[in-house]
Amino acid sequence: MKELELKYGCNPNQKPAKIFMSEGELPVQVLNGRPGYINFLDALNGWQLVKELKKATGLPAATSFKHVSPAGAAVGLPLSDVLKKIYFVEGMELTPLACAYARARGADRMSSFGDYVALSDECDEATARLISREVSDGIIAPGYTEAAFEILKKKKKGNYNIVKIDENYIPAPVEHKDVFGITFEQGRNELDINKDMFTNIVTQNKELPDSAKIDLAVAMITLKYTQSNSVCYVKGGQAIGIGAGQQSRIHCTRLAGNKADIWWLRQHEKVLGLQFVDGISRADRDNAIDVYISDEHDDVLADGVWQTRFKVKPEVFTKEEQRRWLENLTDVALGSDAFFPFGDNIERAHKSGVKYIAQPGGSIRDDNVIETCDKYGLVMAFTGIRLFHH
């Protein structure tokens, strides 16, 4: 098949819409549903991300995509009991691929609501069961077991978008994009990101363990498919905070850092001990937890309000308690798609437990950025490679 008609373009008024190949056959098959323009943008970007994550780490990978940027990305490392609880997967079968998806979906559950899933490997039944419970628009993978396909095709009243991609497909080395009737052309970004990229360490502290190299690779590959400007925090093989599409890099660092902080705060005993009313949806639990942690906690704890979410009125999670808990977040890796122009980015990253940093370097203020890293004993590698994605 050389072309595929889409439901509509970016918006319902943008018709007709299709994807097509000038030469050869499309490398994708729609097995169920009717994907739209944005669905395929998320699917194809997400597939590239997970394919590269698996190549770089040797582990199965998953990503949760929303509006052409990842909300989460991860490799298939085992989950602790605490992570199983905050990702709502306690008591479920967790294969390595299922662990990857649980991590990708769970790190920023609010942003992942209504996601498009990409998997590096054939979707197995365990992973399909996790996906089946979540609000999601579709999935792309190189294949599906019979049991997984039967589970997924029941989603959205039988309209869940299920796409199979040829894992051996190699795109043309030159790509094109039309904007305002004008065609842009460029060579594809074929940069191979792996653990060897982080050898040029410019800080006094040069101790970069293999685990940190894996986390930095996860960060940089995630950034390769995140709308710029972008910054990514990673811990334990999963993105825990992604800041995408901001005009200012410090705003990216703050946005991603705030998400990383929330990920960690969700693991505090006060949050783990919240007693939700019976029958509340996972999405409503996510929203309640977010408000409970935030400066707006009075809204959810007000008389007549908390009873709609909680069996027992929670204690206030004070800012001082949160600050003390955040001090336990350590050994976080941070990647940036372009150089840090000021040391304020490092100051903010340090507050969220960042110890390892990878960025291109090349700013006229590199000395200030390095000096700020040295002040906190951080390790920073200059990659010499920019990863803008638009």
Report the top-level CATH class of the largest domain.
Answer: Alpha Beta
Shape: globular
Can you count the beta strands? 15
Biggest sheet, spatial arrangement of strands:
3-8-7-6-4-5
Low-confidence stretches: none
CATH architecture of the largest domain: 3-Layer(aba) Sandwich
User: Helical proportion?
Assistant: 25-40%
Number of domains: 3
CATH overall fold name of the largest domain: Cytidine Deaminase, domain 2
Helices and strands, with pairings:
Blueprint lengths: L2 E3 L12 E3 L7 E5 L4 H21 L3 E6 L2 E7 L5 H6 L9 H11 L2 H4 L2 E5 L5 H8 L3 E6 L4 H7 L8 E5 L8 E6 L2 E6 L22 H15 L5 E6 L2 E7 L4 H17 L3 H4 L9 H12 L3 H5 L17 H8 L5 E5 L7 H8 L2 E6 L6 H11 L2 E4 L8
Parallel strand pairs: 6-7, 7-8, 13-14, 14-15
Antiparallel strand pairs: 1-2, 3-8, 4-5, 4-6, 9-10, 11-12, 11-13
Helix pairs in contact: 1-7, 3-5, 5-6, 8-13, 13-14
Question: How does this structure look, described?
Answer:
It contains 14 helices and 15 strands. It is globular and about 60 Å long. It is 35% helix and 21% strand. Strands 3-8-7-6-4-5 form a six-stranded mixed β-sheet. Strands 12-11-13-14-15 form a five-stranded mixed β-sheet, sandwiched between helices. Strands 1-2 form a two-stranded antiparallel sheet. Helix 14 (366-376) links the parallel strand 14 (354-359) and strand 15. It is of the alpha/beta class. It folds into three domains: 3-170, 3-Layer(aba) Sandwich (Cytidine Deaminase, domain 2), CATH 3.40.140.20; 192-265 and 330-382, 3-Layer(aba) Sandwich (Cytidine Deaminase, domain 2), CATH 3.40.140; 275-316, Orthogonal Bundle (Helix Hairpins).
